[in-house]
Amino acid sequence: MNPNTNTSGKPGAANGSLSRNILKRRETTLLLLVLVLTAGVALRAPGFVAPKSLLNVVTDSCILFIVSIGQFLVILIGGIDLSIGSTMALVGMGTAMLNQANPAIPAWIFIPMSLIFGAVLGLINGGLVGYGKLPPIIATLGTQSAYRGIVFLLSKGQWVTANEMTEGFRKIPEGRFIGMPYMFWAAFVVGIIALVFMRYTRSGRDIYAIGGNKTAALFAGVSERKVDLVAFTVSAALAGLAGLLYVSRYGIAQNETASGFELQAVATNVLGGVNIAGGAGTVLGVLLGTLFLGVVNNALPVLRMSPFLQMVIQGFIILAAIVANRLMDKRRQRRAEGRGRP
Amino acid sequence: MDDYILEIKGVSKYFPGIKALDAVDLSVRPGEVHALIGENGAGKSTLVKVLTGLYKPTAGSILFQGKERHFAGTVQAQEAGIVAIHQEPVMFPDLSVTENVFTGHLLKKRKTGLLDWPEMRRITLELLARVELDINPDRMVSELSVAQRHMVGITRALSMNASLLIMDEPTSALSIRETEDLFKIIRQLKASGTAILFISHKFDELFAVSDSYTVLRDGRLVGSGSIKDATIDSLVRLMAGRSLDRMFPKRVAAIGPEIFSAKGLSSGRSFRNVSFNLRKGEILGFFGLVGAGRSEVMKALLGLDPLDSGELVLDGRRVRFADPCKALAMGVAYVPEDRQGQGLVLPMTIADNICLPQTATMARAGFVARSKEAELAKEYGTKMEIRAAGWNTEAMNLSGGNQQKVVLAKWLATKPRILILDEPTKGIDVGTKAAVHEFMSTLAGEGMAIIMVSSELPEIMGMSDRIVVMHEGSIAAVMDRAAATEESVLKVATGASTGGAAA
Amino acid sequence: MNDHNTGFVDEARLTKMSPARRVADFLLRWEMMLFFIFIIVFVVNSLLSPYFLDPFNLFDATFNFMEKAVMAMPMMFVILLGDIDISVASIISLSSLFMGMASEAGAGPWMLVLIGLAVGLAAGLFNGFLITKLDIPSIAVTLGSMSLFRGIANAVLGDRAYTKYPESFAYFGQGYLGESIVPFQILVFLVLALIAGLILNRTVYGRHVYAVGNNKTAARFSGVPVERVRLIAFAANGLAAGLAAILLTSRIGSTRPNIASGWETDVIAIVVLGGVSITGGKGNIFGVIISIFLLGYLKFGMGVMNVPGKVMNIITGVLLVVAILLPKFTDSLRARLRAGNAKTRVRDGAKE
Asked: Structurally, what CATH architecture does the domain formed by B6-241 represent?
């Protein structure tokens, strides 16, 4: 079974209030791209579509997906969260050190702990943006540096390695449930909750409203402050969870953990068709964007391409996706105005 | 004593150094349409903001449904039953119609607390049918026309079951038919007991639909009563302290030879096969209902929007304007409709704004020629009688009328041969309106050719030498001022009849 | 404040502020606050370390931040326009890559300079074209090009490095002016700053930049060539990154793919701390210059006291946030200072 179709288990973005046609088109195109890319790679290396390999792609993408959802919320309100990587590192280091110092703590406690820890860090961002009226890019630029510095202070520059973590800790992402690792289920649950939250709760719609037209949203009684707080707190909470998963999966917590992750999270959003200016985008899009990047990243070793090519390929894909999106938008606009091809 | 749904007693709103409202009284009964009249700056929008909870009154009391109310914000006011529809429909372009209607009061399923989209969609469909807007509620608002968006705004207000509905210039974006639909809805609401506070500059509408009126001037109540006892003249006098015929100064001008012509202009769905010519010293009025395509023609002419086909001839030579910059170089200036959004750089000073289009041409080796600019700004600022503390006042601190003057000064300073004005007096008080019209007359008298796009029939009738009437993207008729009447122009504009198409 | 009192009507009568109030108003300006913080940094540093005030040390300290200073100049224009460019550090990487390749092939120092500048300019134009011709938000384009440019360096070099640079090349980044203790880099920066300041404050282009940054639509309607203005800014950013690449590569004498890693955030922080609004339209060069030296000497001072790099990051992060928060208070203070004097009448349509 192709794990890519796991997405069908989630309620599609096409129902509900969103304009069906347009959305259907974009997400379908994305899905097709992912499939085509996978097929393309498989042509050169048939082992790529073996269940184990595809599973690898999916599980590798789980952590990125979790933070991408967080970034999704912030992008929707027209901002950007540059502190995600640092938050991952801080929470990751914190939980790892705790585990190292007190091996008796049952591993599962770390999951809610990482969420709460992350949420606290996110509250700071939310406060700076919501109450201090700081532009999100500035606020998260500041916390990005600050949090990473705190990692250093906390660890005094030391690393926490796999040997120093308990087995239970290391099992957090890897333990199995119905054949899929916990990490996958974490991402799955996050995805479902995100879908329901964004579509079926007032807070979720408020986020779209603020990002779509702030004045109109304020007039309608939406609280900008609340929306800011929610978006940044959730983003950091998810980053905290991702940080825990990251250090436990790779068995190492150090200073440079997850450096640059926030921009990867932006890339998945951009690839997924989320409007960088805010107000438009879907969870499904984020998922597909993440999968796309995941396929690309995993294809490299399979195709025996140098890992040093990863960055340039990623950059190229991001640019290609952005340009393609823009050209499609322009064509759609022209058609709506009744003009033919140029 | 009659049951008033709204009683405003002695309400004042002071800002540091400003009395926006000064002891205003106003009462509205259920089922009554009450017109709120006044120039810009008279205090109408302040009063609306006080009623909807955006401002707290400095003094006075508001009694709503018999109880004294203090609203801490728009949400409280809405929950009490006071809903306002604003001039600019507040919309979310990337969200559906249903969402736009329900944002702020989204419906939840009782059991789960989650949003109930099917129910909201159903209600939206019902309401859309009431306003006779036949669109799919799942469509994104960005795909709708301006008039349709306005109707969605009205649908939204209906969905909130207001007891007091405040409508601020509700028909500015609507066609005649849509306006009639709106009046139908208003009468329905009246019958069901909703009170309506109706703000408009259009006297014919006020007389058609309202029961009573209140006139504000400089924040004070200067007159009120039953609309039956009022005339246009009495209302204008109350508003401005001056009488009607100064609004459209008569024009006398020698009209010269043809300076510009357009043939067969077309652009997508906006307009097709538009042809007209323009002569020196002439004011060519462009009239049409919203959506007729007038502004679109002008913008495409100047290169702001794409032009699919057509020929432009200036001084006998074929030209194409790639952008407003090139148009300006050839002496064609365009004053846009949205003065704040498109006409001014608000944080910049008056002087800098006035000189902006010519900074490059007046510069020496790329460096700004400061003294030359100061002179130019002073010359044109004085000509337009801009009222401000100094030429270095920032544009954002000026009144709407003064801002319009700055925009005009900016373009006049470029000494254009052709001036295109898009709704030059929209949303401006009567006093400044008269000044602008007088100015236009003077310019025409000096030989400038002027194209004036306007939706106000009296303005078009009073100021134009010839009237180009557009209807749904094409020219329906070109009429001489002498031959045209308000009725005949309107008939052509609505497509009810085809007038004589003259060149 | 000039008062033109001939021939027009006073609607708003702003009473002149008393001298005391005007002084207070001036002192509360962003640039002045920055300057105070700068003085504080200097004082604290010199108190904490006897070596700090040595002129030789002070000049030598600038080696660490002149490259960023050079990049901050055109970045100021980009941010004033309401755009952003997060690819500048990656452009350094690309530019340095090509210089390294050329050097291995035997090119002389001036050839290297040419190549460095050319690559930077080309990269900037690449960004600029995508942003202006296709109308794509600058954050998106530079996000992609950031990976693309550094990715190219990664792909070519992997984990190797170019280290063969001609000796004379080292002058740009390491040399001093004649026999003095003033580094050559400072001269480069000062010239650049002078040019940037003149352009911003005195030329048509500078006026256009402010107009576009404040209201792109109004600028376009007023005949400002918006797209060309933006293209020039991004091209200049690329060119400056190329210049910075020359200085940096010459200073450290080698090219690695991770050169200048993370510098984009530093440069942006410098500009924003300097009082330039991230949304565009507001800010001037004096604040940026003060900010350069403030941050530069702050870091240097901390280094002298052996504060670890990461902790420096905390301090700069907090400083950035505090620095932006502070004006929220000072702005309302200044508004109250002015409102206490003004007797202005109703302005309809004005914001509350």
From this structure: 3-Layer(aba) Sandwich (3.40)
